[in-house]
C-alpha cells in the first residue's frame, strides 16, 4: 500500500506500448526514487489526450485493460497514476499542473520527462520550462534524450504505423517486446474442432491498433507457460460475414482446456492475409500449411 503523502519520483507521458524509450525514462524514475527514498511513479491519463483534442480515437498499442500492469511490469515503477483527461485538465496551465497536481497533490520530489514531451494548456509546458520551475521549487528534474534505433526516434506513433502495416518484427524491435493482445478466452462457435484445428478465441479490444487481418506466427502465454501457436485475426469470411473481429490462436501440439483463462497472444510474424475459401477442405489445407510455416519459422529463429 503506497501512502498518499509519500514523496514521489514521477515520470510524465502517456506511455502507450511501453516502448524502449519509455522504458529508459522509467528506469531513471526508479533510480531517482531509490536515491531519494521515494516512490517511483508514472503520471499518465485515462484517455489519450489526442483522442480528446482531435475528437478521433487514437488506436492503442496496449489495450485499456492491460495498461496499468504493462507499465508496471515493463517499466518497473511502483505506481501508475491515471489523471482524468477532461476539459479542466486540457485547459490547465502547465505551471499549475506542476505546482498543484504533481507537487501539491502527489508530492513530487523529482520529475522525469522526455526531451520531446509537452504538457499543459496548448502544450506550453516544455522540458526547459519544467526544468526552471523545478529549480524554483527546489526539486529534481531530468530531461531524457530520445532513444533512437536506426536513427529513428522511438515513438508510439511510429510503432502504430508498423503494426498497421503488419511489420511486427519492426514493431517488436522498437517496443523492446512483442506486440501482444491479451484477454479472457471465450467460447467460439466450435467450428475449429470440426476443421481439426481447435482455437482459443479472444475478442480484439476495440480500442487497439490492430495489424492487418491475417495469419501470424505467435506465442501464447497461459498459466505461466509459453506455447508456440499460429493465430488468425479477422472475421473468418469463409463462415459468413458480419462477425466482430476476433483473435484465434491454434496452439500447436496442445490439448488442454483454456476456457475462461487469461492469456496473452504475442504476434511475431505475418504469414498471409485472411481470405474467404470456397469450402472448409480448402481452409483446412491452408491452415495445415500455416502450421508447417510456423514450425519452420521457429526452427529458423532457434538457429
Ligand atoms: C491458422 C488459422 C488460419 C485461418 N485462416 C482463415 C482464413 O483465411 N479465412 C477464414 O475464413 N477462416 C480462417 N481460419 C478459421 C477461423 O479463424 C476459425 O478458426 C474458425 O472459424 C473456427 O471458429 P470457432 O473457434 O469459432 O469455432 C483460420 C484459423 C486458423 C487457426
Ligand atoms: N524515444 C524516446 N526516448 C526517451 N524518452 C521518450 C521517447 N519517446 C517518448 N519519450 C518520453 O516518454 C514519455 C512518454 O512518452 P509519450 O507516450 O507521451 O510519447 P511518444 O512515445 O513519443 O508517443 P507519440 O508518438 O504519441 O508522441 C514522455 O516524457 C516522452 O517525452
TrEMBL record:
UniProt cross-references to Gene3D superfamilies, sorted A to Z: HUPs (3.40.50.620), Riboflavin kinase-like (2.40.30.30)
InterPro entries: FAD_synthase, Riboflavin_kinase, Riboflavin_kinase_bac, Riboflavin_kinase_bac/euk, Riboflavin_kinase_dom_sf, Rossmann-like_a/b/a_fold
Record key words, sorted: ATP-binding, FAD, Flavoprotein, FMN, Kinase, Multifunctional enzyme, Nucleotide-binding, Nucleotidyltransferase, Transferase
A Pfam family hit: FAD_syn
Record's catalysed reaction(s): FMN + ATP + H(+) = FAD + diphosphate; riboflavin + ATP = FMN + ADP + H(+)
PANTHER family referenced in this protein's UniProt entry, alphabetically: RIBOFLAVIN KINASE (PTHR22749:SF6), RIBOFLAVIN KINASE/FMN ADENYLYLTRANSFERASE (PTHR22749)
Protein name: Riboflavin biosynthesis protein
Lineage: Bacteria, Bacillati, Bacillota, Clostridia, Eubacteriales
Amino acid at each position: 500500500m503506497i501512502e498518499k503523502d509519500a514523496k514521489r519520483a514521477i515520470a510524465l507521458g502517456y506511455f502507450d506500448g511501453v516502448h524502449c524509450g519509455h522504458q529508459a525514462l522509467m528506469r531513471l524514475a526508479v533510480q531517482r526514487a531509490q536515491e531519494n527514498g521515494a516512490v517511483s511513479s508514472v503520471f499518465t491519463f485515462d484517455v489519450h489526450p489526442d483522442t480528446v483534442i482531435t475528437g478521433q480515437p487514437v488506436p492503442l498499442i496496449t489495450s485499456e485493460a492491460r495498461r496499468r500492469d504493462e507499465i508496471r511490469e515493463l517499466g518497473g515503477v511502483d505506481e501508475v497514476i491515471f489523471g482524468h483527461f477532461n476539459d479542466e485538465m486540457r485547459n490547465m496551465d502547465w505551471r499549475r499542473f506542476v505546482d498543484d497536481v504533481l507537487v501539491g497533490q502527489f508530492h513530487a520530489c523529482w520529475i522525469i520527462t522526455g526531451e520531446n514531451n509537452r504538457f499543459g494548456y496548448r502544450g506550453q509546458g516544455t522540458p526547459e520550462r519544467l526544468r526552471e520551475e523545478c529549480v524554483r521549487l527546489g526539486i529534481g528534474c531530468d530531461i531524457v534524450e530520445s532513444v533512437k534505433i536506426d536513427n529513428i526516434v522511438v515513438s508510439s506513433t511510429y510503432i502504430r504505423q508498423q503494426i498497421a502495416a503488419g511489420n511486427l518484427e519492426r514493431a517488436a524491435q522498437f517496443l523492446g517486446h512483442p506486440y501482444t493482445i491479451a484477454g479472457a478466452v471465450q467460447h467460439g462457435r466450435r467450428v475449429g474442432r470440426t476443421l481439426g484445428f481447435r482455437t482459443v478465441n479472444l475478442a480484439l479490444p476495440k480500442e487497439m491498433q490492430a495489424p492487418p487481418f491475417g495469419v501470424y506466427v505467435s506465442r501464447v502465454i497461459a498459466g505461466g507457460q509459453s506455447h508456440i501457436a499460429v493465430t488468425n485475426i479477422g472475421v473468418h469470411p469463409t463462415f459468413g460475414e458480419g462477425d466482430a473481429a476476433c483473435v484465434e490462436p491454434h496452439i500447436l501440439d496442445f490439448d488442454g482446456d483454456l476456457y475462461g483463462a487469461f492469456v496473452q497472444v504475442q504476434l511475431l510474424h505475418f504469414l498471409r492475409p485472411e481470405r474467404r475459401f470456397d469450402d472448409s477442405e480448402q481452409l483446412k489445407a491452408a491452415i495445415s500449411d500455416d502450421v508447417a510455416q510456423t514450425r519452420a519459422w521457429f526452427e529458423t529463429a532457434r538457429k
